[in-house]
Structure formats: C-alpha cells, structure tokens
Design brief:
The structure is a single chain. The protein has about 300 residues and is of the alpha/beta class. The chain folds into 3 domains: about 5-85, Arc Repressor Mutant, subunit A (Orthogonal Bundle); about 90-160 and about 265-290, Periplasmic binding protein-like II (D-Maltodextrin-Binding Protein, domain 2), CATH 3.40.190; about 165-255, Periplasmic binding protein-like II (D-Maltodextrin-Binding Protein, domain 2), CATH 3.40.190. The protein is about 40% helix and about 20% strand. The chain has helices at about 5-15, 20-25, 30-45, 60-85, 100, 105-115, 130-135, 200-210, 225-230, 245-250, 280-290, and strands at about 50, 55, 90-95, 120-125, 140-145, 155-160, 165-170, 190-195, 220, 235-240, 255, 265-275. The strands form 3 sheets. It has a 5-stranded mixed β-sheet with strand order 4-3-5-12-6, sandwiched between helices. A hairpin with a 6-residue loop joins strand 1 (about 50) and strand 2. Helix 1 (about 5-15) packs across helix 2 (about 20-25), helix 1 packs across helix 4 and helix 6 packs across helix 11. The radius of gyration is 30 Å and the shape is rod-shaped.
Length: about 300
C-alpha cells in the first residue's frame, strides 16, 4: 500500500468514476483499476461493489476512504506550505563562527529575511568547538563553521575556503629573512590567538609542532577583533585572514609575514545533523553558499 493507492481511491470517490480519476491523475483507467485491485488485495477487503451498474463503494471502502481523504489532504497542505516559503514560520537557531560573522553573514541574513519573512533567525556567534558541541546537542538547527566536517550522521554543504596568514605590527620590526620566516624565527615572539575552543588554536599548535618549534608564549582571547587589536599594538604575532583585515594592512597597521611552510586555507561548511535536516535548513545552506565570499576551487 502506498500513497498512489490512496490517491486513486480518493479521486474515484470525489469524481464518481475510475475514468474521471484517471484523467485527474494523468494516467489510464486500467492503471487506476490496478491500483484499486492491489489495494483490495493488501487490505483483504472489497472497496467497490462491481455488480451494480453505477459505482458503489462498500462500507469497508468508505471507512478506508475516510482515512485516505485525510492523508491526501494533509500531503497537499504540506506541499502547499513548502512551495510557498513566505508562509513558513517559527524560529531557527543558526550557529556561526566569527570569520563568517565579520564577512558575509549580514548578506545571508538579508537573503533569509526576504525568503522566510515569518521565520525568526536566532544567531549564535561562537568559537568552533562550542558551535560543534551545540550542534551535536541539538541546540542549533544549522551551523556554519570551519571543517573538517565529515560523518555519516551529518549533511554538509561546502562554502569555500579562507586564507589565514601570520601577521604582525611594524612595531615588532620583524624582517623576513631571505624573504621567508620559519617557525623557529618566531620562538622569541609571543603569539596571540583565540582560545582552545577555536580550531585556530589547534592549527597554530600543530604548525609549530610540525616544524619542531614552540612559541615563547601564547596569549588567548575569544574575539578575532581583539586578537587583531593586540597584534596592532605590537604585543605579539597572530594568524589572521587578510580578507577581513585588508584595511588595516593597507594602512600599514598590520603586515603579512611570509612563512615556510604557509598555512593551508581553511575550509568552511554548512553542517546539520541528518535528524535535523528540513526543507528550510537545506535552503539556508544553499543561500549560505551563494552569499559566501570565500574562495571556491
């Protein structure tokens, strides 16, 4: 028994004949007859009295038709609401990290307000690990954050990558030796970064470790903007995205340090657990891909 069986029964009852139901459902009368025969076999009852000249539904057929009417009407209602996105309402919790908040989040929110005017978007801007934890705990409907983002229980949409580079203030008077600096050249300089709940903290630790070095000191905070301010004050070096701090670089408040090896671009993803996937979260993920100013390819 499937939806087509119930749909055939409903339209036979509404239109009064097998042939009319076939026209309504864009199929043939034999196909409708077959659906009813299959349904009768599955239910073990006779739905129509075929001995009468006119179509006559049996008491068992009438009982099952009542259920079928409700199911068909409900499916049509759902399809109507899903196709008219302006009618969707409710609250949606969206978690993002600061790199997104400082670049294209406002464009995404504008897009969502236009398509889903009755949906309230609750934004949660936080560090990567905290966003991940909230998504896993069911506190977020959708998360936009750096990867990797893989798992059989996850639905993901790629949003491009963003480049991070080591930066410093001219006050530190760091000079690129031979055009490039190594991790060991930073041994005497404090590093300023986000706290351990950020993936940036882990990337920095791995970068130093892989290059057999360690910073003199690591100072942490929970704001990328504060990291940049402390860096511009000459209190240490930091890993920052040039796309966000282009003005500070142009003014000379920050300058990029050429390093070997360079930092690999950081990939971003729209992530939802499969149990939370819905037409609206899927649509938001696609809007995020269109709004993203990160690099693709």
């Amino acid at each position: 028994m499937n939806f087509k069986h119930m749909e055939a029964l409903v339209w036979i009852c509404r239109l009064g004949s097998f042939s009319a139901a076939a026209r309504r459902l864009n199929t043939t009368q034999p196909a409708i007859s077959m659906r009813i025969a299959e349904l009768e076999k599955r239910l073990g009852v006779t739905l129509f009295d075929r001995r009468a000249r006119t179509l006559h539904i049996t008491p068992e057929g009438r009982e099952f038709a009542d259920y079928s009417h409700r199911i068909v009407d409900l499916v049509q209602e759902v399809e109507g609401r899903m196709s008219d996105r302006s009618q969707l309402s409710g609250r949606l919790k969206l978690g993002v990290t600061e790199s997104v908040a400082l670049t294209w989040l406002s464009d995404l929110v504008v897009r969502l307000n236009e398509e889903f005017p009755a949906v309230l978007i609750d934004l949660d801007i936080n560090l990567t690990q905290i966003v991940w934890q909230k998504l896993r705990n069911g506190e977020l409907d959708l998360a936009i954050l750096p990867g990797p983002a893989f798992g059989s229980d996850l639905s993901t949409t790629y949003l491009g990558s963003i480049l991070y580079t080591w930066m410093a203030s001219p006050k530190l008077k760091l000079v690129n030796a031979g055009g490039q600096l190594s991790a060991k050249d930073f041994n005497r300089v404090p590093v300023i970064t986000l706290s351990e709940d950020s993936n940036m903290h882990e990337i920095i630790e791995t970068w130093f470790s892989d290059n057999s070095s360690a910073p003199r000191r690591v100072d942490v905070c929970n704001s990328l903007g504060v990291v940049a301010e402390l860096t511009m004050a000459g209190l240490g070096i930091s890993m920052l995205p040039p796309i966000i701090f282009a003005d500070e670089i142009e003014r000379g408040d920050l300058f990029e340090l050429k390093t070997e090896p360079a930092i690999e671009p950081l990939e971003f993803w729209a992530v939802q657990t499969r149990r939370q996937v819905s037409p609206i979260t899927e649509s938001i993920a696609q809007h995020a891909r269109q709004a993203s100013t990160f690099q693709f390819g």
